[in-house]
Specification:
alpha/beta; 321 residues; globular; four-stranded antiparallel beta sheet; Rossmann fold
Length: 321
Amino acid sequence: MSEVLLEVKDLKKHFPIRRGFLRRRAGAVRAVDGISLQVMAGETLGVVGESGCGKSTMGRSILRLVEPTSGSLKFQNRDVMAMNKSELRAARREMQIVFQDPYASLNPRYTVAQTLSEPMEIHGLHDSAARRKRVESILDRVGLDPSYSRRFPHEFSGGQRQRIGIARALILNPKLMILDEPVAALDVSVQSQVINLLEDLQQDFNLTYIFVAHDLSVVKHISNRVLVMYLGRMAELASSYDLFSNPLHPYTRALLSAVPVPNPRAKRERIILQGDLPSPANPPSGCVFHTRCPLAQDICTQKVPEWREADANHFVACHLA
């Protein structure tokens, strides 16, 4: 059985809303509102949901790139929330992130060699000759010519820039990588190349992924387990096979009904959700999904659904599941 690499308990991130001349607190945006999960070593956990559901904020909160409001984070049984700056910097050698925008995440004034060498310099790893050799090695591993190290980001395509972002995350030999929609900005043909690269790297370096994405077909392909989020909360968590073959939450069913079917003759009943996503600054009472749920009943408006195991290793937060 795989060991638990990351344990998250009741993670919350609320961004304060301030108004008036004195900037008094008038409320909060509940971007992440009580996430609890375990990530096993070597697995890929897919995280899906609509824009604004808190997927990216959850990933950044786990790394403390944005400071969580409350909750518990343990990485390899070490308390991440209790770490000071120097301890957190050392821990980040083993926890890295690949950002969605492959251009905005790269410094346009740095060459590829400078971009990839900087993490090693920050952590005091190797001398200049060893760093140069490591940069060339990692570029070759992600499918780029080592001679590209002298180029600047604007000289690359989107797919090549994302490979540079992956190389930067990989260069410190991390154990956990948070992939924040790494293929969302890429063409479909390039997406498949990057996904195949990520799978190869996971096997070669024994990596653990938290894969944040919109594209459910990509998530189904790469993930061992899938977490469905809605308005900052957990809706459903199951193995990729169980989630796609037997979705229990009405929101999950609606998401899956929107996935294109590659067979033009095949027909699928599309579930159209009514209304817009509620504001995370003023979430609905009871089940936060009840305002758009086609199956909602009175209990859904009054009582928050319990997070429970509806089937073996298949968890859901729904009164009707």
